[in-house]
């Protein structure tokens, strides 16, 4: 069953819409010219055959409005000059070129171009994988992995209980189908066979939320590995613990750390937002929970951890500061990295530049996981 599901996902990634535009266009060798050519080729397209909230199975009534308006992810820019003006307003082309030139393979460079074009034109013009209604029609048989009718209310959706044994994971958890597809089938925090968690690895899971990724890592590192799961939001931890209770085989592998990863330890910070969108802020708001920060360097030192093999960070825009607080780890252990770079425009160059400045031997890769430009991940491994 796993082979069939994975093959269906691969078939979707080969869909002739969206991404194929670049394959039919003449490819200029100059980075800026290539970027502008892609934008020009995408301008005539405008897709209206899908709804974001339907694909993501969101249960909150204002999710569609949030995506379409506040996030401005659905656009219909018809003027090429306006699009180029927007590109130059938001980005330093030379900095983007630095990232492009420092990516280690052609696939990453191609995806990087599409990520930029998507940020300018939106998903009405640029179709990432899983942006099509048939995506979920074909994958409806994930319902067969449901254990029973028990449900869990998440921040943005209702989770069902799944057993992932039939797709190759010794994991039971409350999640939704998009969570299974992105985290387990497309392996959000692995890049091909190059950057991946392996048996015996010690993993930092920064931004563990409901524990689905921590369980993915626990399955990969097996009994001799460790997963240090950083999560501090009360509601998230409640769901995390329910998922952990479903997987007693990993009780000695997963260590929950209720602190915020930052560039400085012992800061009093405050929690804003809900669910996977929770983040830390410096100023207290009414009713905001408090949390104290810790650097990864201090965490490893204080707990006398002998090695770190893999660092994953998806912490709502604090990734760069977290990496600055892990400089000693990067230099000493040179761990594999999977870092989210979609929260801020400047993440596209500031994070890869910082990583290379600390450990020049890192090779860099990029993968894009979702419909709307979220979940762009930068991977790094020393060559």
From TrEMBL:
The keyword Iron appears for this protein: no
Pfam family for this entry, one: Methyltransf_21
GO molecular function per UniProt: methyltransferase activity
Positions of the Methyltransferase FkbM domain: 207-346
InterPro entries in alphabetical order: FkbM_mtfrase, SAM-dependent_MTase, SAM-dependent_MTases_sf
Keyword Repressor applies: no
Keyword set, alphabetical order: Methyltransferase, Transferase
Family annotation (SUPFAM superfamilies): S-adenosyl-L-methionine-dependent methyltransferases
Any GO BP annotation: methylation
NCBIfam families attached to this UniProt entry: fkbM_fam
Protein name: FkbM family methyltransferase
Species per Swiss-Prot/TrEMBL record: Candidatus Limenecus avicola
